[in-house]
Amino acid sequence: MPKHDLVVIGAGPGGYVAAIRAAQLGFDTACIEREPALGGTCLRIGCIPSKALLESSELFREATHSFAAHGVKVGSVELDLATMLARKDATVDSLTKGVAGLFKKNKVTRYEGHAKFVTPTKLAVQGKSGVIEIEATHVVIATGSTSAPLAGFELDGDRIGTSTEALAWPAVPKSLVVIGAGAIGLELGSVWSRLGAKVTVLEYLDRILPGMDAELATEAKKIFEKQGLVFRLGARVKSAKRDGDACIVEIEGQEPLRAERVLLAVGRRPNTQGLGLETIGLALDERGRIPVDAHFATKIAGVSAIGDVIAGPMLAHKAEEEGIACVEFLKTGHGHVNYDAIPSVVYTAPEVASVGKTEEDLKRANVPYKKGSFPFLANGRAKAIGHTEGRVKILVHEKTDRILGVHILGAHAGDLIAEAAVAIEFGASGEDLARTSHAHPSLAEIVKEAALATQGRAIHI
Ligand code: FAD
Ligand code: NAD
Q1: Is the CB of 112 within 6 Å of ligand 1?
Q2: How far apart are CA 381 and CA 84, in angstroms?
Q3: How many CB atoms are closer than 10 A to CB 160?
Q4: Residue 267 backbone zone (phi > 0: left; psi -120 to 50: alpha; other: beta)
Q5: Checking DSSP bridges between strand 369-375 and strand 391-397, what pairing results, if any?
Q6: Distance, CA 147 to ligand 2 centroid (Å)?
Q7: CB of 310 closer than 6 A to ligand 2?
Q8: Whose CA is nearest to atom 12 of ligand 1?
Q9: 150 CA closest ligand 2 atom index
Q10: Distance, CA 261 to ligand 2 centroid (Å)?
Q11: What DSSP character marks residue 298?
Q12: Which spans in 269-369 are helix H?
């Protein structure tokens, strides 16, 4: 029976990064993944294919809506959806193969098949050619998550689908109903809206993007509405069914909606089924997640867990940080994840990005704070590139000036937020950011000006 120092179950961003770091630290490491391609949800059916389609569909929209203002005449613009989808698939393919290359380079042994615990240190792997057993001193569970179902939904893998299907629809639907105004609903709703679908987003809450700064979410909603998305807030969806070639979506207390396709995007749930957790006596929490301590150890000796399968935001970079910290704790006793400095980005146009506390968090916790805000409209680079929507908002502690949260709605917000994450990680003050030189002309100057604004001394407004 093969034996390894450390075996990771799942090759998503949590699992494959944990395996590489473990190998770097000198563990004889293996990774079990049931899919033929490595990279998990993120690379195969999540972050990467969605960002490829967001980029392509935004270029299509810009060609029809923005190029003329730059003096670029392109004549009639046509959509070649098959090429767009093929480009997305090629991007995914090159990245998943890249992970296989990294495994080889770092001497991580790869097993293809479904892993199940036999004992805490012995796993059965059901592959194409049968079952093999593997022994390990340490096992890291990184099995991720899948789309959460909704009672009353007849997911048919075609007209009524999850993000996985919506990343591969072969034709642009005339009408699309999206259930859920979270990251997936807004990103994939934007993709199909830009390509010509009439998109209606149904959201149970009275706002979009729960968890993000409420003021910026309201501003973002207005921008998305101008782009053509229709929102119905306070809409609790009861069911979605096929009716011939159409779908009927029933909403509590409202008229049903008809659409060509339906995207269910109401969250994700941890992947723990069929892992044999009951065999080793590992109980789940009330939301089906694997409970861990501050070192990512479960209650069962030798078994750790990271990523979407444990508590916390379901984000690829959060899973990566946990993967690294988990194996560093196992090898050295030291590791580090700062949950106050994990950025979150929604890749709409404009993007919405956030790190640290929101105003709502600070009010709830009675933390005294000051805020500084600066609009993209007053920044030279934003004007030059023609992306003037949105703002940067910085929240600092009223007494200590420590940066508590940064929220950005605007072009390249997902890149701009990195500076804010570093500032929070290093315990920077608003004044630290305000006194740091930022290149001119750059969008990063908006971050500096928002920091100046926390002290009432922004220059350009
Ligand atoms: P996963 O990536 O889910 O990987 C788990 C792996 O384990 C899978 O490959 C699975 O096949 C394997 N597995 C499960 N059980 C077993 C078993 N018993 N045996 C063997 N293998 C098993 N996050 C971001 O940060 N940025 C984004 O832009 C972003 N966009 C997204 C877009 C979409 C459409 C979706 C669906 C998600 C997106 N996410 C994004 C979320 C991100 O994909 C997840 O947070 C991330 O993939 C979690 O990583 P993980 O390693 O914990 O799990
Ligand atoms: P989400 O939790 O972000 O949003 C789901 C939304 O659906 C919520 O607003 C919720 O109120 C609403 N909802 C729930 N039940 C409903 C009902 N019956 N009727 C109407 N609305 C309902 O979940 P998601 O958008 O599915 O994304 C899943 C996970 O994937 C998230 O954790 C997200 O962080 C991650 N993700 C991240 C990115 C990114 O980082 N850019 C992109 C995509 C997905």
Answers
A1: no
A2: 30
A3: 22
A4: left
A5: antiparallel
A6: 9
A7: no
A8: 10
A9: 18
A10: 18
A11: -
A12: 316-332, 359-364
| CB 374 within 8 Å of CB 454 | no
Residue nearest atom 36 of ligand 2, based on CA coordinates = 183
Separation between Cα atoms, residue 102 and residue 43, nearest integer Å:
14
Mutate to test the pocket of ligand 1, among 143, 320, 327 (most ligand atoms within 8 A of CB): 143
Question: CA nearest 320: which of 118, 43, 35, 28?
Answer: 43
Q: What are the two backbone dihedrals, phi and then psi, of residue 354, each rounded to the nearest 5 degrees?
A: -155, 145
| Dist CA 253 CA 340 (whole Å) | 39
**Cα 10 to averaged position of ligand 2 atoms, centre (Å):** 22
Domain-by-domain residue ranges, the chain? Answer: 3-147+269-337, 160-266, 341-453
Q: What is the mean pLDDT of each run of 10 residues along the chain (461 residues)?
A: 97 98 98 98 98 98 95 95 98 98 98 98 97 98 96 88 97 98 98 98 97 97 98 95 94 95 97 98 98 98 98 98 98 97 98 98 98 98 98 98 98 98 98 98 98 97 92
341-453: CATH topology is Enolase-like; domain 1 (3.30.390)
Angle at 414 between CA 425 and CA 51, to 5 degrees: 135
Residue 387 Cα, ligand 1 centroid: separation in angstroms?
32
Q: What is the pTM of this model?
A: 0.98
What residues act catalytically? Answer: 440
Which structure tokens are listed for 202? 């149904």
Question: Does the domain formed by 3-147+269-337 have CATH 3.30.450.70?
Answer: no
Domains 160-266 and 341-453 share a fold: no
Pick the CATH number of 160-266 from 3.40.30.10, 3.40.50.10490, 3.40.50.300, 3.50.50.60: 3.50.50.60
